[in-house]
Design goal:
The protein is an alpha/beta fold. The chain folds into 4 domains: about 100 residues, 2-Layer Sandwich (Beta-Lactamase); about 200 residues, P-loop containing nucleotide triphosphate hydrolases (Rossmann fold), CATH 3.40.50; about 70 residues, Helicase, Ruva Protein, domain 3 (Orthogonal Bundle), CATH 1.10.8; about 40 residues, Homeodomain-like (Arc Repressor Mutant, subunit A). About 40% of the residues lie in helices and about 15% in strands. The chain has 17 helices and 14 strands. The strands form 4 sheets. The protein has a 5-stranded antiparallel β-sheet. A 5-stranded parallel β-sheet has the order 7-8-11-6-12. The longest helix is centred in the first third of the chain and has 28 residues. It is elongated and about 105 Å long. The protein binds adenosine-5'-triphosphate and magnesium ion. Magnesium ion binds next to α6.
Length: about 450
């Protein structure tokens, strides 16, 4: 065999040349592997000779017209993965090159890398569960936090039911999911977490429900999905609002029957797992505009848990701030004493749109730059400046300042639902000053 003819075998590719009408004019002998039943291909129509190209006439016509090339992946009966590339040949284009390339080794490697990435992600999630704050260590004494702690204890005692955690970003949804898991199953059972916004729909389906060999181009092995990995433990679906409608349907069926079908499989699997879902969007609203299935919402919402925003947690802000100072003292090996009274005031007055995470980041940043003493107001960086002071124009004939003050006090109390600490914050006053002014105006609430 001339040395040139060996090259395609060595490099595991083969090729043919077809004219503008799609008639094969020349080819490498190994191309016959792809044309079952033919002993010579010259003069044969491409789409009839190569079954993989059946119905693809419009594609090679497009290649003939422009400069674009085309690549089609497929798996043959022997489970080898190939790509078929179609290139324009000649200047100006006088025909087509059809190149088959054996990419089985590459597909196998890609699959193995994906598998390893999954394993790392799952192990990481398990490690995080162990290192995370234990149930008793959830910081906060406010009524809202106590209710939350009671709920966690209850949930851990009952048979796995779906839990839906809703709350603004940074309020502790992921933390609470882990705490519920830990309380219910301990640290040895699997805690499997996936962010539904992190992967495109087609990958997410395989990731969640697994796939069998040949289900898609690079599926060289059967692959377990995360739902199955979570058997006997918890499956935590973060940002569930981002799940596509078809996947919502598949999840609903799984929740109702505990059974699912991996991608490309003919048989079903059964899995027992506790499902915790989280969202910082209002799912009920999403059901109203049709982007979230109502039946899935009700199925998930068996136990709704709303995580309060940090600004609703009253004195817990102080407890959390102190907790983070102690935490970062340990981490940075420092001994910062706490906060000056001015810094405490600034912390309680700020609205914390990023909630507990923002508080933690703010304190971490302050402590990186501080070596001793207390954290001062100037050490704290707030991302949203205090609400702009409104410019009030004094009317020509003046106002009754005391009457206005009384009205504002009543309005703040109203807005804060009668909670004096919160009302004080709305007016930029301390609790004591507020109490004094309420007494002054005989407001008894
Ligand atoms: N009650 C709590 N006590 C102590 N630390 C907490 C508490 N709740 C949350 N945290 C801490 O606050 C940070 C943010 O929490 P987490 O990541 O759970 O919020 P999230 O609601 O999941 O945020 P996102 O919506 O962005 O996913 C974490 O560092 C977590 O350890
Ligand atoms: Mg989270």
């Amino acid at each position: 065999m001339p040395w040139r003819d060996q090259l395609p075998d060595l490099l595991r590719f083969t090729f043919a040349y077809a004219d503008k009408k799609g008639i094969i004019r020349d080819y490498h002998s190994s191309f016959l592997h792809f044309t079952p039943g033919y002993s010579d291909l010259r003069g044969e129509p491409l789409c009839e000779a190569v079954p993989e190209l059946l119905g693809m006439e419009s594609v090679w016509r497009a290649v003939l017209k422009g400069k674009t090339s085309f690549e089609l992946p497929f798996i043959n009966k022997q489970n080898a993965t190939f790509t078929c590339q179609i290139f324009p040949a000649g200047h100006p284009v006088s025909g087509l090159w059809i190149v088959f390339r054996d990419v089985t080794a590459l597909a196998k490697q890609t699959e193995e890398i994906q598998q390893k990435k999954n394993e790392i992600r799952i192990l990481q999630a398990r490690l995080d569960t162990r290192g995370h704050i234990a149930g008793g260590d959830l910081i906060g004494e406010s009524p809202a936090m106590q209710k939350l702690k009671q709920m966690i204890t209850r949930l851990a005692q009952v048979r796995p039911t779906s839990v839906l955690l809703q709350g603004e970003t940074g309020t502790g949804k992921s933390t609470i999911a882990r705490v519920i898991h830990q309380a219910a199953h301990g640290s040895t059972a699997p805690f499997v977490e996936i962010n539904c916004a992190a992967l495109p729909e087609n990958l997410l389906e395989a990731e969640l429900f697994g796939s069998v060999k040949g289900a898609y181009t690079h599926a060289v092995h059967d692959r377990k999905g995360l739902v199955e990995e979570a058997h006997g433990g918890t499956l935590f679906l973060d940002e569930i609002s981002e799940l596509s409608l078809p996947l919502q349907t598949k999840l609903l069926t799984f929740l109702e029957t505990r059974r699912f079908r991996p991608l490309g499989s003919n048989s079903e699997k059964t899995v027992e797992t506790r499902l915790i879902a989280a969202s910082n969007k209002d799912l009920q609203k999403l059901t109203e505009n049709g982007t979230f299935r109502e039946d899935l919402f009700y199925r998930l919402n068996v136990v709704p848990v709303r995580l309060p925003a940090l600004r609703e947690l009253d004195n817990d802000i102080i407890l959390l701030a102190d907790h983070f100072v102690a935490f970062f003292n340990r981490r940075f090996n420092k001994s910062i004493k706490g906060f000056t009274s001015g810094a405490y005031k600034a912390i309680t007055r700020y609205t914390w749109p990023g909630n507990i995470r923002e508080l933690s980041n703010c304190i971490e940043r302050a402590m990186i730059f501080k070596d001793e003493g207390c954290i001062e107001t100037d050490d704290l960086v707030f991302h949203h400046p205090p609400r702009a002071k409104e410019h009030i124009l004094l009317p020509e004939n003046g106002i009754d300042l005391q009457e206005l003050e009384k009205k504002l006090l009543l309005e703040a109390l109203e807005k804060a639902g009668g909670n004096k600490s919160r009302a004080a914050r709305l007016l930029n006053l301390t609790r004591d000053t507020l109490r004094y002014r309420l007494e002054k105006y005989n407001i008894d609430r």
